[in-house]
Amino acid sequence: MIKNDLFLKALKGETVERPPVWMMRQAGRYLPEFMELRKKYDFFTRCQTPELASEITVQPIRRYGMDAAILFSDILVIPQAMDIEVEMKPNFGPYLPNPIRSKEDLDKVIVPDIQDTLGYVIDAIKMTKEKLNDEIPLIGFAGSPWTILCYCVEGQGSKSFDKARGFCFTQPEAAHALLQKITDTTIAYLKAKVKAGVNAVQVFDSWGGMLSPTDYQEFSWKYIQQIVNALKDEAPVIVFGKGCWFALKEMANSGASAVGVDWTCSAQNARYLTGGNITLQGNFDPARLLSPPEKIKEMVTQMINEFGKDKYIVNLGHGILPYIPLENAKAFIDAVKEYK
Ligand SMILES: Cc1c2[nH]c(c1CCC(=O)O)Cc1[nH]c(c(CCC(=O)O)c1C)Cc1[nH]c(c(CCC(=O)O)c1C)Cc1[nH]c(c(C)c1CCC(=O)O)C2
Q: What digits encode the pLDDT tens for the residues 184-221?
């Protein structure tokens, strides 16, 4: 039994005294204790060493007391496990030296055994569960197949992922074969995470908003739906698509327990588009954490009033920025805890 079950209650749609709160990318560079470890260990060492990954996961919890923890890791451990090389270059971000651009490239991509390739994540989950001591739930996550394809084809981050979109439109068969391999790997991975102890899973479709609504159905949503179908009876699933307001209806009807929204969609519109019954998560503009703490508190209270306290999980509309002052992040969390 988890002592603070606000997050799990909200995922079930149950009535709560106040909504739960966590922040996407809450284990990150705005925390000085994270920066200390970052000086000593490179990115994938931090992900692959259970002592480090579990420590980084609980850092924001110790400081702010969020209502859920999210395992420190990265969505790009999936392509790595599939035999696609991934580097994390300082001041640059993800870099994949051998991107997938043809059927031949695709044939080299494997659907791996999870324990063999990602056993370190399983160990990190078990160690994190011990550190959390059943105080709060732990969230596991994966990127959506489309978002993973974006990096596999583009080879690095991008403002528009033109090469990834071009690959889908010029070589649709290869694109679908890659998406299916990623989907199969992701399903096995998330099931293993649940078995290891995570209490919910979130699928990040960070680049879903790059696609037209029609292309979104074909190249992204179809595969996310497979993941939801495979996971929903094992753990609550949260689906978050950045820029994907047009898909909120499918998301709400998918069997997912909650749907994430970004800050370009109003609470009222999100409730309308999702039919008013599903738990929503979001959607504070991450740059709004640069406002003065008093203003942040006022805006968070207003946001809760707009979404309603029930069937709602307070979060940012995307990941926290690296240069957010500590007291501003605190104001965001405290405003929720003080909500009446
Ligand atoms: C697209 C994406 C990635 N990774 C992730 C996404 C989807 C979520 C989103 O859209 O924000 C997911 C992710 N990445 C990380 C987490 C940890 C858990 C959390 O606290 O939310 C999560 C959930 C750690 C990380 N992943 C990364 C960092 C920062 C790099 C570092 O610590 O050196 C962290 C804390 C690196 C990373 N990883 C990725 C990028 C683009 C970068 C570079 C970003 C940058 O440098 O600002 C890919």
A: 999 999 999 999 999 999 999 999 999 999 999 999 99
Interface confidence, given as ipTM, is 0.92
In whole angstroms, give the CA distance from residue 48 to residue 52: 8
Cα-based angle 152, 156, 161 (whole degrees, multiple of 5): 80
CB 238 within 8 A of CB 201: yes
Residue 44 assigned as binding residue: yes
* Torsion sign over Cα 338, 314, 10, 234: negative
Please identify which residue in the block is written with the tokens 């890659």: 178
Residue 72, marked binder:
no
Rg of the chain in Å (alpha carbons): 19
Helix (H) or strand (E) run with residue 48 in it: helix 43-48
Specify the 3-state DSSP secondary structure of 88. strand
34-71 pLDDT tens trace = 999 999 999 999 999 999 999 999 999 999 999 999 99
The closest residue, in CA terms, to atom 45 on ligand 1 is 93
Catalytic site residue 18? no
Identify the CATH assignment for 6-337 out of 3.40.50.300, 3.30.830.10, 3.20.20.210, 3.40.30.10: 3.20.20.210
Catalytic, 262? Answer: no
